[in-house]
Design goal:
- The chain is mostly helical.
- It has a domain at 2-131: Winged helix-like DNA-binding domain superfamily/Winged helix DNA-binding domain (Arc Repressor Mutant, subunit A), CATH 1.10.10.
- The protein is 50% helix and 9% strand.
- It has seven helices and six strands.
- The strands form two sheets. A three-stranded mixed beta sheet has the order 1-2-6. A three-stranded antiparallel beta sheet has the order 3-5-4.
- A hairpin with a 6-residue loop joins strand 1 (2-3) and strand 2 (10-12).
- Helix 2 (24-36) crosses helix 3 and helix 2 crosses helix 4.
- The two termini are 29 Å apart.
Amino acid sequence: MSLTNPFGDVEVTDPQAMRALAHPVRLAILSSLQRNGPATATGLSAHVGATPSVTSWHLRHLAGFGLVTDADPDEVPGDRRQRWWKAVARGFSVRMGTDPESQTAGRALGDQLMITAQEQATAWTTDIAPHLPPEWLRLSGVSNTTVPLTAEELAGLEAKIDELIAPYVHRAEADAPDGARKVRILRHYLPS
C-alpha cells in the first residue's frame, strides 16, 4: 500500500487487505479512527457494535495491513496505560487488479462500502438534516447524473474531482474558517 493519491489516502491494492476491510466491524473501526482521531479498543467498541476484546482483535488485524497503527503518546488524552490506535491516513482508496482474486475481493469490499454509504446517508437524513440551518440544508443532498464517458475520460474526471477536493482534505480542522462544518462527500461512479 502506498500514499499516492491527492488526498494522501492509503491505496489498498492487496486482495487480502480488501477482504479484511470488507468486514463491517473493521470498516467501522477504520472509519471511526479516520473521522474522530485516536481511540482505544474500549472507546471504539460501543461505536462499532463489538466487545472491546473483539474490537482489539480487529484493530490488530487492520494493523497487519498497515491501515492502523499505535497513536503517538502526545496524540492521546489522559491515561496512557491503555493502547491507543490511529488510522495511518484520513481515508483509503481501492485499486483492484485484473486477476480473479483481486476482482472478487474488490467486489466484496465495494459491496460493503455501498452498504455503509447507504447507512450513512440514511443516518444523515434522519439524525442531522432535520437540525441543519436552511443555508446548509439547501447545499446538501444528492445529485444523480448520467454521462457518456470512455474509461479514460472517467479516469480523468475522477482525477480532476480529487484534485479539486484535495486542498480541503489536507486543511487541518483548526485552520478551517469560522462556520466550517464537516461535510461527507460520497461519490459513486457506476458504469452501466
